[in-house]
Amino acid sequence: MSIHSSFLRYFDEVCKSSSIRKAAAQLHVASSAVNRQILKVEDELGTKLFERSYDGIKLTEAGQLLAQHVSRTLHDADRTLREIDASISGTVGGLKFVSQGSVISRLLPPVLMRLYEEYPNTATSFIATGGKGLHKLVQNGSADIALIFDYKAEPGIELVDQISLPVGAVMAADHPLAMSELQQISMQACAEYSVILPDESWPLRDRLNRELSHTTIDSETAASSNSIEFLRAMLTEKKVVGFQTIIGLEEVLEEGSLVHIPLVSAEGGAVTQTLSVTLNENRQDSVFMDRALCLLRERLREYAMAE
């Protein structure tokens, strides 16, 4: 079934085969019908789409621009027809999101709730796991979308969007460092206090290790955990200092029970961490996927603007 003019299919096939005759054979129509459609559109546009010679045909500059549009249009049409079929049958495919557990505290739920409101017959799920190796879950098809901290390019993975977030020293509001009302802080300034670090499964730990090498803090004796819940509890109830972006700590920071002071490196620059939206570059596109990515982009922009 086609929901667009036959010209789009004719033109697309001619582009692929570089021959009107071969395109017509592939489409099971007469060569004259294909040529007539192309000449008609060229006349309407007032420009040639193909350079014709004894060696064959070649797209003009205008033809190349139109070819890109036609390819996108046919691709979107095919995807939409699949979605319509799925909607009729009531079997719209769902999406699996994967990331560190911290994103489920505040960042991701509005996206999932909006998707449920707009697509009530479509399931979504979230898998919380260690921060390193998340891309492998996308590569092997275990997840559709991964939100990855400090993502580094990997084969077969498409980077959709990325923001940079400041890493801060985090402590209870009545901690001496919080009471000092510092605008920024170095890791060495935290050395005289007990600290808690993310464990080695968090990408942030690699960044913090570089800063730890410039301090007197003994990372071997410092408490560590891969649980954002444990981190929140330790920071709230104990006189310890942790290091984290605001992701996963939004509520307690807004309440004022914890304070986040931006961390500066030994060289004097801001310590930051990226958060990226990634997916398999060979994925099967869908309207639902596109909507999810749009909502994620909007959500990341909200966090970027808040910094």
Automatic annotation (TrEMBL):
UniProt KW keywords: DNA-binding, Transcription, Transcription regulation
Domain HTH lysR-type, chain residue ranges per copy: 1-60
Gene Ontology terms for molecular function: DNA binding; DNA-binding transcription factor activity
Pfam families xref list: HTH_1, LysR_substrate
Highest rank taxon of the organism: Bacteria
A GO CC term attached to the entry: cytosol
Protein family (similarity comment): Belongs to the LysR transcriptional regulatory family.
Protein name: HTH lysR-type domain-containing protein
Source organism of this protein record: uncultured Thiotrichaceae bacterium
Taxonomic lineage: Bacteria, Pseudomonadati, Pseudomonadota, Gammaproteobacteria, Thiotrichales
